[in-house]
Design brief:
The complex is a heterodimer of chains A (162) and B (271).
Chain A (H helix, E strand, L loop, with lengths): L4 H12 L2 H17 L10 H19 L6 H12 L5 H19 L3 H12 L4 H8 L3 H25 L1
Helix pairs in contact in A: 1-2, 1-3, 1-4, 2-3, 3-7, 4-5, 5-8, 6-7, 6-8, 7-8
Chain B lengths: L2 H15 L9 H23 L2 H16 L5 H11 L2 H5 L11 E2 L22 E2 L9 H7 L17 E5 L3 E6 L13 E7 L2 H6 L10 E5 L2 E6 L15 E7 L2 E7 L3 H10 L2
Antiparallel strand pairs in B: 1-2, 3-4, 4-5, 5-9, 6-7, 7-8, 8-9
Classes of the chains: A mainly alpha (162), B alpha+beta (271).
Chain lengths: 162, 271
């Protein structure tokens, strides 16, 4: 399990928005995965199966804590402001671009936001994204395409408004 | 793929790479520990399935409750000492000494400010005195008739020390995972007693409004009190904030240097 704990914890962190809850969710998911090993289909990839359990546990934690979804946007916004690698002369433009992107992400439906977060923030494969979202692998491709289209529309709306 | 789309994807990846994730905890190790504990519990469940030992426990209880008064005064005092340590424990406190946390070298160190040389005297380490017998995890489980409850918060790990307490209770002492309680080196004290919270810990307290706040622990009622609040029925001044709640017929008292929300989270991990 050690080899999977970073991606598992980061997935849980983006869902719960809280390090301590993410830690609990990851641990609980590992325990449940171990108990459910008998039901694991031999020959199937292990990581998507495990990440589905982690995401489920993290969602339960988030619900129990009464938090709303989409917390990763807050985390991304806070971190992006602090960790910008851009040189000073382009820093303002890059920060504006990121802020624009975050605003646009905030305007998307949760399903679209999560498809984007899985693929681009967590760097997950289509199969892993499908496991977390609870959909077929082929659906991820179409959802991602729709999500990016919606994102561009949101960005354009902001451009027009600005 | 059009350049515009590639650029958008690249921007999203860059944004994702800027997220400052907290350090990854060793959840695999913590999960292993939980599973190990469950394996340890299996032989105990096997024993519980056979009622002989239960009957032995009932017989022992009968001897203590009914037959002890008939014993010689000396023997009766000895038997009583196993279960009662002074008046504080009669009030239902855990096996932490009624004299409270004592200064480690009280006899040798003058009280703060009493230094004849006029130099500042620093407070020596507070060491809570656990007067009950040190017992093993297995013994604690037997003592709680199979209902020993443990926090499953990974960072706490297993209890470092366990003591028997009166009224068939146990005191679990942890030293890792949370800020220490004063300078004791202890991170959390969890006391468990069969029965309800009020008679176990709060008899004589004014209840909600007297400093105790009502809280919900996994949907069940509990009480929260900050460390500075004085609870007259407790065996010693509080070293940290305290949470009382009941779970599966066990009255629990959690003492730690954490805020209410975190204490409740730990309490909700107990099973």
């Amino acid at each position: 399990m050690r080899g999977y704990q970073e991606v598992a914890f980061r997935t849980a962190y983006l869902i719960t928005g809280d390090a301590s809850e993410a830690e609990d969710a990851t641990q609980e998911a590992f325990v449940k995965a171990y108990r459910a090993l008998g039901r694991f289909r031999s020959g199937a990839p292990f990581r998507p199966w495990l990440l589905a359990i982690v995401a489920n546990e993290a969602r339960n934690q988030r619900r129990a804590a009464g938090r709303r979804a989409g917390l990763f946007l807050r985390a991304a916004r806070e971190c992006a402001a602090e960790n910008s690698p851009s040189p000073p002369e382009s820093a303002i433009l890059a920060a504006e671009r990121r802020e624009e992107l975050l605003e646009a992400l905030g305007g998307l439906r949760e399903e679209a936001r999560w498809t984007i977060a899985c693929r681009y923030f967590l760097g997950l494969s289509e199969e892993e994204t499908a496991a977390i979202l609870g959909c077929a692998r082929g659906t991820v491709k179409s959802r991602l395409s729709r999500a990016l289209r919606s994102l561009r529309t949101e960005i354009a709306k902001e451009g027009d408004a600005g | 793929m059009p350049d515009r789309e590639r650029e958008l994807e690249s921007d999203l990846r860059e944004l994702g790479s800027l997220i400052d994730y907290p350090p990854t905890p060793d959840a695999a190790h913590a999960a292993r520990r939980v599973l190990d504990e469950e394996e340890e519990e299996l032989p105990r469940r096997f024993r519980v399935a056979f009622p002989t030992l239960r009957w032995a426990a009932v017989a022992t209880a009968f001897v203590l409750i009914v037959a002890v008064p008939a014993l010689s005064p000396t023997l009766r005092a000895t038997v009583s000492d196993w279960f009662v340590d002074g008046d504080t424990q009669m009030a239902g406190g855990p096996a932490v000494d009624g004299g409270s946390a004592v200064r480690e070298s009280e006899a040798n160190v003058p009280a703060s400010g009493d230094s004849k040389s006029g130099e500042a005297v620093t407070s020596p380490a507070l060491t809570p005195q656990f007067s009950g017998e040190r017992i093993s995890l297995r013994e604690a489980r037997a003592r709680m008739a199979g209902d020993l409850l443990l926090p499953r918060t990974p960072k706490l790990g297993k209890p470092d020390k366990i003591y028997a307490s009166p009224k068939d209770g146990v005191v679990l002492v942890y030293t890792a995972g949370l800020p220490p309680l004063g300078d004791t080196g202890i991170s959390l004290i969890l006391t468990e007693m069969p029965g309800d919270v009020e008679p176990a810990y709060l008899a004589g307290e004014g209840g909600v409004g007297s400093g105790l706040k009502r809280v919900s622990v996994d949907g069940d009622p509990g009480y929260w009190s900050p460390a500075e609040h004085h609870l007259s029925q407790l065996d010693r001044p509080l070293l940290g904030n305290v949470l009382f709640w009941e779970q599966r017929g066990v009255a629990l008292r959690l003492e730690a240097n954490v805020q209410k929300e975190q204490a409740i989270r730990i309490a909700e991990s107990v099973r």
